[in-house]
Amino acid sequence: MFTGIVEAIGQITVVAAEADGRRLTIAADKVLDGMEVGDSLAVNGVCLTAVTIEPGLVTVVAVGETLTRTALGGLAEDSVVNIERPLAAAGRFDGHIVQGHVDGVATVAELTAEGDALRIRFAADPALLRYIAEKGSVAVDGVSLTVTAVGDSWLELVLIPHTLAVTTLGQRAAGDRVNIEVDILAKYVERLLEDRP
Length: 197
Known about the structure:
By secondary structure, the chain is mostly beta strands. It has 2 domains: about 10-85, Elongation Factor Tu (Ef-tu), domain 3 (Beta Barrel), CATH 2.40.30.20; about 105-195, Elongation Factor Tu (Ef-tu), domain 3, CATH 2.40.30.20. The protein has 4 helices and 12 strands, in the order E-E-E-E-E-H-E-E-E-H-E-E-E-H-E-H. It has helices spanning about 65-70, 125-130, 160-165, 185-195; strands at about 10-20, 20-25, 40-45, 45-55, 55-65, 80-85, 105-115, 115-125, 135-140, 145-150, 155-160, 175-180. The model has no long low-confidence stretch (mean pLDDT about 95).
């Protein structure tokens, strides 16, 4: 489990084709300290497994299913990514419950500066938006954020300067694709209501 509080920005150094996916090597600093092969790591909000670790480098594999359901297939060498390690049992819970199981992809539609903040509107599938509520939580590329507005085919977020500085979202442009994970509570509520007689 993750919280959507990004620990570091990593940089893709190698993208290599696999039989059913891609192997991504990511350069990062202290966030990898103490990490071992087999540990989980959220990369742009996608829970992946570390398959090799070297000083300052971690390699993960994204299989075909992951590439189909997320925006990871668009990563290339020199791409930057948000990185978060799983929440430690004794850790502080600051964001919201993020599983690293991406529900869909949205596209940056519009960016509007508001002083030092940035309002971003994302175009998204209505099937995804049904789980998103104004003032509710959503993870965008692994970043826990509060929804400021939602419509039939879009959602909006306002990013504060700190978020812009410590995540990749400040580098987004119109047309960019991002990973979206909705609040798990919304999905469980829907499932419970489906089973009612």
